[in-house]
């Protein structure tokens, strides 16, 4: 038996997806129809030794080509010529569902029908005369219950039967006399060479579409005479009957359907969706509707972002651990570019891709739930007034809200918008909803430049600026680039249903997979490039002799240690303590150079232990041992204290308790008070000061290296360009780095200002910023961060969602330009009037 | 003869048929309770009438269940409704009788006047309404008097020419004007019902509205307005559809 290709058609909300899942099980894959971003799902089924390929057509209400979905569905039916089309009908809403069926009958395809959710319909008191229905439709009608998998075998049998028969003669819809004449007239004028459609469609069908003024076919007609005549006929028909032919024809189709339904369907007046209506009375209530909506949105936001935090941390930690594992493959001291690439570039990059996964999975869990229950349409219904004002659709609200968390899942969330113009506009303004990754930048800058009282206001101001840009941007786009009629809000409010677990999981799985495959590769590639740009080229010779500087620091340190040793009477001129410190530094050097498993480490440790033994056991060494033990004890206590108080607020009850415990433990160290004071002085002044000075040298070296790197050079090169915004090369360099992820800005500023591992809590970095820039410049940094693109992941996802590079490139250029111009205006204006100087 | 003779459709039964037909247009099926209410009779009489209509094969009837029309019943009902409407329209539009009186007279006459005569009257009314000469003076106040020269050829010719000129000028404009004057869906209050008369607006929107089932003659109930005051939630063809008020303004309706 040959493979049978089945096209699955149906209205949105007809349960088409559940039938598709029931037919194909897990044997399905998701792709795209060529050239458009309409999703194409394919699956396989087996029955009685026959194999079926099942193609899920996009859900449409008609085949009139007024949306990309309708065009795709129609072209598939005509070009791919599936062996049979199975239409899924929502049994509780038969009349409107049959409209599509009538159009497919007119197209002359072989059909079978799945009367889906027939159980629900029966429970609502609707009875079907299947024989009569099938008699009218001239095609088998099989009752199915998609979410329970009932009726699928019978459906496949029916499909196979129909596929094996020649195309039957369908019932002809009786159009008014004038319409029929007009169709015939156009048909006569067709020559078969009237454009790309002519060869593919039957003449009569084509003539009817031309008369209807089809959006796809008429503009493609190369015989302008036909088009002109059609226009004339349309107008004369309108003058005669008061309606254009497409309306008259839609009426005739509905008329036929209504006649059929009155024969084959029996309903009781109770057949209304009572439960659904009751739910709507609450959820769409004039008073309660909006509060409930806002609460639900709050839950969604919390779910997507707060609940995702722990797994995101796990992923980060796991990749951190994997990175050190991989680093362990090389000797510790090895200066291997390959290791850097693997650890910092690749593993870091993959981690950067996967870290969004919890967000995306949870987002689609929420979306699958909202869509599956039918609430998504209600959300759009509630919000449309507001969104329509800025030229968007009610359904844009949820993605815009998610934008405050992270732009990446928010862009993926625009899937729910059917209209392309709405979708593109939403994607384009989304980055201005200030995302969570920008918060560290604000958190760093605001306290650095602004007095306490203004903190909250500044943060508020930044968010509001973003919203204003998004609103104005959307309006402008809608009246310029994406002009065209605002899309009709003619949208079904489907009855509430309980989504199947299966559908929810499938959607999550598909989206997560797509993200990793399609967007992930780009993000990974760009992250590696950005990493390389900040790491290379290496500086062969530094401006400063860092080795000498380090030696000087060590020499000074040793003097200080010896002095302390003398004071405490540890050996001749403190030689015991000095030797002990030397052994420790040597051991630290060994640790830096070797992994624990390497022989050099073992050897170094052995030498160290022996040295300590020798030092402690020599005459008078017992006092040194006491000193060393106290030092180790304190070290341990500090570590324990840090662990205990992690995440605790300073001054909180738990924090104070931990402090008390530490005090008690310190008091319990029973050594001579003079010696203890020495240990404390050693730890707090000498060792700490040494660490700080060495850190400064390390940071200065890293800073010099970054300045030498490609991104540093670009930063310097760009300095004249960014100057009007009040930026210098350091900020420019940090901006380049922050394209990988916005929060990197903070770390990069830390490096260029040589303050080490900076985060948004870093006071030393704040001091540097405050010392080097004015509040106006600080504000400009925030403004630029807000208005420019969030990160490479945004671009990658935008490419994935729009199916081309055009929009992402426009975004890169557009956002940079807008951010540049706006920031420049603010800076120039501010400096001219002396605001925030 | 074994088959029972097709019982004559009595005037009373015709009224029932008409009532069922009207109810079915809203709900797809009619409950005996509603039928009783519509005809202002007791429920028990309804049952008997329904049984005989069922026996005649005009309705699908089973006790305690809602009633739907069979194909034949629909045809019969449409005929009754049409006769009723044709008579009433004739009285109102041609004879210029006031509406209430026309309604009562039509109710009484629809059963007794032979179908053929009703048909002729309806045709006549339609003709009068359609014929451009209607625009002349003679039908204006139903006085049926000639305001011109009383049959003199010249006068009549002038009168006719006036008619032709007016006809040309008014023509289609008149119908469009009429359309704009009438009520649109956005003006129907929450809970109100309306019947679609025609669709206005630009091409793709109009087509989309029609395809979703808002076609001439379909019945719409406005279920609610969104809390912010825009889109409407309407019930059409048994399902909920939402559309913005400015879109609803393209749907010309009459209150039902």
Characterization of the model:
The complex is a heterodimer of chains A (837) and B (256). Chain A is an alpha/beta fold and 837 residues long. Among the domains of chain A are: 4-164, Rossmann fold; 177-271, Helix Hairpins (Orthogonal Bundle), CATH 1.10.287; 546-695, no CATH class. Chain A is 66% helix and 6% strand. Chain A has a seven-stranded mixed sheet, sandwiched between helices. Chain A starts with a strand and ends with a helix. In chain A, 42% of the residues are buried. The mean pLDDT of chain A is 82. Chain B has 256 residues and is an alpha+beta fold. Chain B has three domains: 8-121, Winged helix-like DNA-binding domain superfamily/Winged helix DNA-binding domain (Arc Repressor Mutant, subunit A, Orthogonal Bundle); 133-181, no CATH class; 185-255, Ferrous iron transport protein A (FeoA) (SH3 type barrels), CATH 2.30.30. Helix content of chain B is 52%, strand content 13%. Chain B has nine helices and seven strands; from the N terminus they run H-H-H-E-E-H-H-H-H-E-H-E-E-E-H-E. Chain B has helices at residues 11-27, 32-39, 43-55, 71-94, 99-112, 115-130, 153-181, 203-211, 245-248; strands at 59-60, 68-69, 193-199, 219-225, 232-236, 239-243, 251-255. In chain B, the strands form two sheets. Chain B has a five-stranded antiparallel sheet with strand order 6-5-4-3-7. The longest helix of chain B has 29 residues, at 153-181. The model of chain B is unreliable at 1-6 (pLDDT under 50). Classes of the chains: A alpha/beta (837), B alpha+beta (256). At the A-B interface, helix 3, helix 11, strand 9, helix 17 and strand 10 of A face strand 2, helix 7, helix 8, strand 4 and strand 6 of B. Strand 10 of chain A pairs antiparallel with strand 6 of chain B, so a sheet runs across the interface.
